[in-house]
Amino acid sequence: MEFSEDLIQYVFSWLPAKPIYRFKGVCKSFSEFSTNELFAWTQARNLRVEDDSGFFIQSSISTWFQDCDKVEYHSLPGEQLFSGVPQKSLQFLENTGSKVLASSNGLILCQNTKTPDDHNLFLCNPTTQTWLTIPTPQDLGKVNWPRRVVLECNINNPISDPDHQDYMLLIIQPPRDWVPYYECKIYSPKEGTWMEKKVHGFGPRRLHLDMPVYHNGAVHFVSYCCDPSRRRGSVYYRPYIVAYDINNDTTRKLRLPNDARKGSNDTLHESNLGIFKWGSRKSSSESICLVRLKKCVFTAWVLRDYDSVSWIRIMKIRVRAMGLMEPNPNYIAGFTVMNGKTLLFATRKKVYSYNMMDRSQQIEQVCEHQCQYGNWNVCFTSYSNTLHPLGIGAATLPDIYKDFP
Fold this sequence. Notes:
Number of domains: 1
Low-confidence stretches: 401-405
CATH architecture: 6 Propeller
CATH topology: Neuraminidase
Strand content: 25-35%
CATH class: Mainly Beta
Helix content: 10-25%
Number of strands: 24
Distance between the termini: 53 Å
Shape: globular
Radius of gyration: 21 Å
Largest sheet: 5 strands, antiparallel
Structural class: mainly beta
Mean pLDDT: 82
Strand order of the largest sheet: 3-4-5-6-24
């Protein structure tokens, strides 16, 4: 039985990029359509609703320390055949001392710390081994700044507009010099310029700017749990979530669950808070998940109703009860939630996964890692290997041995 080329392309457009590349050597037509821009956009659009199959892991310490330049990519259990990043891309990121700042639908935003000028930001599709430099805001060019970036792809119909770029890029800077506002910079891909805004209403607490959640048209940040400078009885004594509506330039504060706020200013046993996307991308039930780690106990809540800020606790479990068998489980180097259900956390040498929707199962070891530096934590960046084009101006990754000695 013979199949038309259109049907073959349609079927392949639902596959991750890795198996598509494996079929390139089967016949000439496979090789041609895998590099076709329309096919690439279609495949990226189809995989937008699928789960991410792997993640990048790096040290959270400043990359001024050369030993911390290592970038590792690992597949989730059972995804090794469908997920991966070419070694050349990983070598390029490591050789340039790049920090992976954000990821969305196959694209990653990176900072090249070996080039401290106004061109140290770049978008990259590590699967297709392409990149595109992004002008760095003038006041950030010589600063090795931590992750404060939101990258969100929204594929509509890019082929109808040859200049179309489907991503939103936003940088949030905390107040400086005692000013009462946050600096927000939004990048226009079509014009290649940054638009600056001064945004009030973020509150006095420090925010976890390295774990934004884009939901309901707003970017959400959770405040740090412990802030001894806040006095009991003050409006901002307890931690909170800030929602920044980009289009309307408005902010809103979302209260945390009462049991999540208890002991929030306990300096002896400080809690680590994080917010993440929750629920399947295929459904309309996506929400926000709040995770607290305190004294080796993970507790998680899901925002059940956004308007009324109603939470429900879905999990409270000690890492030992998950099945962690390491001799010293008292140190968690970092954690995240992938695909709206999987808790991913790192110890000093290993990464584990835990299904928060099926807690009858025990944790599963994902991999070993070499990204921790001293007592500094690690950071995760979820990734889906798509053929997502970078648009006009994109180039093939340079030869790392020739161009980056």
